[in-house]
Amino acid sequence: MASIDTTILPFEEKPLYVPSLEEVCQVLASGLTSNFETVQVEVVDCPNLTEDPFHLAGQGLNGNPTLLEIGGPPYLLPHVDYTKLYDLVSISERSLNVTKKEFLAIGAGAGPYPLVDSNCEGMFNLKVHANGHVLSESHLARVTPDRKKVLLEKIPNTETRCALLGNIFLSEGKPGKVLKVKCKKRTGNKDFIASVRTTLEQHYGERTVGMGGVFLLKNGKAKQHVMSPFSETPIYTEDELNTWLNFFDMSATLIAVGTLVTNECDLDLRLQHFHSFSRHGEGGHYHIDTTPDTVEYEGYFNLGNKIVRVDKPVNTHKFGRD
């Protein structure tokens, strides 16, 4: 099945509030202590994220940083819309207003189900060169027929589609200054990303701040889900959704990519969405660590200048966004 013609998709764009990295560093260094025993936040030169342990397709997170949200859970629940297949390359080019220019796209979404003839999670991680060549380090995760195990697979360079929904951080993949956030021993009840997001939300209020990047679960385990094959019956409630999803405890080291935003700014946004992959065959949708006493996170993030909303559902709902 072909992807939707990008030129006919509705696009909405809004600027984000962009404080200095130094200011955000101070806000997070103070606020994250309510959820973690050890917190270290710095403004640093971005490490080369193509190298171990990150394995991203591009080196950095700088150059026209943009948050991109495509589709949404209403295209999955209560009924799946099989027509919602999106080409990340053409959507990213339109969002960045570039052609024949290098960019990096990383984030979370529903995987390209036609590739494996099954619903799947997508960990999108691709670099597009100026000549159009695609380097994909993307992965997908799906469950075995008995729903007891996860299969993590590399997505080939020739497959650049996501299905149904996606939250992608776009940039030119350049080196530069970024936020480095390290946290150990969770003492509160919020996951790592929710702790970052709510700290920013409490400080900036109605001003919308957005971030994207990559974090490592360096030690411990995390609760993550992988979707089942598409449901033949409608899913109307959170309980029905959680029965359909498959939850696993997955072990470090996990490499998670995605975005967060402090409010919906009238765009019907998903406030946070990160998916992880690994070098040991595990991956899925990140929820929270399950080993708070020993957990260790290390993340590298950049602030988005704008958010681009693509194909916002006309008929929407609020469940299935955890």
TrEMBL record:
Domain named DUF1907: residues: 27-310
Top-level taxon of the source organism: Eukaryota
UniProt KW keywords: Hydrolase, Metal-binding, Nucleus, Zinc
SMART domains: DUF1907
Subcellular location: Nucleus
Predominant cellular place of this UniProt entry's protein: nucleus
Subunit structure: Monomer.
Protein name: DUF1907 domain-containing protein
Lineage: Eukaryota, Metazoa, Ecdysozoa, Arthropoda, Hexapoda
